[in-house]
Amino acid sequence: MRTRVAIIGAGPAGLTLARQLALQGIDSVVVEHRDRTYIETRTRAGILEQPTVTLMHELGAGTRLAAEGMDHDGFYLRFDRTTHHLDFHRLVGGHATVYPQQELVKDLVALRLEADGPILFETKAVGIDTKPDGVVVHAEGPGGPLTIEADFVAACDGFHGIGRTHIPESERVEVTRTYPVAWLGILARTAPATPEGMYCAHEDGMSLHSMRGPHITRQYLQVPPDTDLEDWPDERIWDELTRRSESVDHPELERGEIFDKSLAPLRSYVCETMQNGRLFLLGDAAHIVPPAGAKGLNLAVSDACVLSYALGAYYRDGIREHLDSYSRTCLPRIWQAQHFSWLLTTTFHTLSDDPMDLQLRLSRMRRWVESEAEQRALGEVYLGLPFPTPW
Ligand code: FAD
Ligand code: DHB
């Protein structure tokens, strides 16, 4: 099979790129290891930045997002048992929108299948050959092995995909940090504790109370990295979420049916070598942020924007320069998101028992609550820095 761009992975990065290319008349083939139901139901991120929402409208993927997404002005912050609201919208404009990642994936899959071309589900890329004049992706699907010949390959295949490993280790510039904590996440049938998501900084660890709609909450607990979910029956999770979110100004947390439980490690990782000849890395294939700040999905979409523009310039005008500067164009925004996620991670979590650390974290949060200048700086990044524009 022959195409211009072979896209590995139908997550937010791959699907966004495929749509952007189709709108420019550039054909692509998308291969996805999992089946359609799996990718359309997998619980993951839920907060979209303003630039992501604006882009989805431009791509024609905004109808359900506009009808079902919940616009948030900022977030709540609770420490010393007292609740504060940081209203970023008032200071910087725009919103964050609560819309589950799997719903966005569903919308983009539907668009692709209706208007743009197929997605080869249950097809796993197992090898990549890059040559000066093209690439070959070797894959295994339900009908057996297949090869895709293309001009370029976009590895949108997540942190554990094969794209990054194709770049020789000696050529990869990688920066990484792991945190000594994990997030235990739940989905529950309860009303949200606050109208917008809330981070609670408690001496025994952070809790985060987010939502997926008016009747479903997404809540997280800081837990040790070696946590076994078997040790966390529902009652224990509710007890801990309740204790860490106790306040003098709100009623106790509502309890209800928990219908999803998961565990996620916290790490910061950037592969600065996002391009190797005709191979490009996008999204989680190139970088991971710790989840505080909700940047992962948004960064994946932002990488797709940069690459689709660069490929557009190449096919339309024969300009290679934007392809060659792909990593350089993406990295500053990636590092801003890394910095923001690190800042929220180190402020809200208890990462040591050093009383100095605790006091420094509290003083930082007090400044955030007292100072409009601090709120503006946080809000600019939380609601979403503009996507990179090399042009
Ligand atoms: P992915 O969404 O991972 O998509 C990659 C796709 O490639 C997958 O569908 C995979 O099946 C496919 N694939 C992999 N290998 C191959 C192969 N060899 N051949 C073909 N297909 C392949 N971010 C937040 O902002 N907030 C959150 O609350 C949050 N929670 C998360 C919870 C979990 C458990 C995880 C894992 C991530 C979470 N994230 C969160 C991060 C966010 O979901 C990711 O940043 C986002 O999905 C990145 O999109 P992507 O398209 O780069 O990769
Ligand atoms: C979610 C919300 C957040 O504010 C965050 O930092 C991470 C995740 C969520 O709703 O999943």
Report on this model:
- It is built from twelve helices and 20 strands.
- With 391 residues, it is α+β, with helices and mostly antiparallel strands.
- It has a domain of 231 residues: FAD/NAD(P)-binding domain (3-Layer(bba) Sandwich), CATH 3.50.50.60.
- The model has no long low-confidence stretch (mean pLDDT 97).
- The structure holds flavin-adenine dinucleotide and 3,4-dihydroxybenzoic acid.
Give a concise summary:
This protein is α+β, with helices and mostly antiparallel strands and 391 residues long. It has a domain at 5-72 and 97-175 and 267-350: 3-Layer(bba) Sandwich (FAD/NAD(P)-binding domain).
Keywords for this structure?
binds flavin-adenine dinucleotide; FAD/NAD(P)-binding domain; eight-stranded mixed sheet; alpha+beta; 391 residues; binds 3,4-dihydroxybenzoic acid; single chain; globular
**Helix run count:** 12
Shape-level CATH architecture of the domain at 5-72 and 97-175 and 267-350: 3-Layer(bba) Sandwich
Small molecules bound:
flavin-adenine dinucleotide, 3,4-dihydroxybenzoic acid
Helix content: 25-40%
CATH level-1 class of the domain at 5-72 and 97-175 and 267-350: Alpha Beta
CATH topology of the domain at 5-72 and 97-175 and 267-350: FAD/NAD(P)-binding domain
CATH superfamily of the domain at 5-72 and 97-175 and 267-350: FAD/NAD(P)-binding domain
Which structural class do the helices and strands define?
alpha+beta
Mean pLDDT level: 97
Which stretches are low in confidence, meaning pLDDT under 50 for 5 or more residues running? none
- Overall shape: it is globular
Instruction: Return Rg in Å.
Output: 21 Å
Strand tally = 20
Percent in strands: 25-35%
Main sheet specs: 8 strands, mixed
User: Which sequence of strands runs across the widest sheet?
Assistant: 6-5-14-15-16-13-17-20
End-to-end Cα distance? 33 Å
